Amino acid sequence: MAMPQRDDTIEAIKRLDALLEYAVMHGDEAEAERIREELRKLTEDI
């Protein structure tokens, strides 16, 4: 994985992690599950 692509992936993971934390804090389980699925897809390639 090229460095710029890796950096973009890391930033996407950080962003999704923050969104997941927010969704869980506010009890939005449907949104939390959607974000978890996005994280799974993103991290499968690593």
Can you describe this structure?
This protein has 46 residues and is mainly alpha-helical. 85% of the residues lie in helices and 0% in strands. α1 (3-25) packs antiparallel against α2. The mean pLDDT is 93.
Provide a quick synopsis of the model.
The chain is mostly helical. The protein has helices spanning 3-25, 29-44.
Distance between the termini: 9 Å
Question: What letter string, H or E per element, gives the SSE order?
Answer: HH
Alpha-carbon Rg, integer: 12 Å
Main beta-sheet annotation: none
Calculate the mean pLDDT score and round it: 93
Strand elements, count: 0
Enumerate how many helices there are, as a single number. 2
Helix content: over 70%
Strand content: under 5%
Give the overall shape, derived from the CA principal axes. Answer: elongated
Give the structural class: mainly alpha
Low-confidence regions: none
SSE blueprint and pairings:
Elements: H1 3-25, H2 29-44
Helix pairs in contact: 1-2
Please describe the structure with a list of short key phrases separated by commas or semicolons.
46 residues
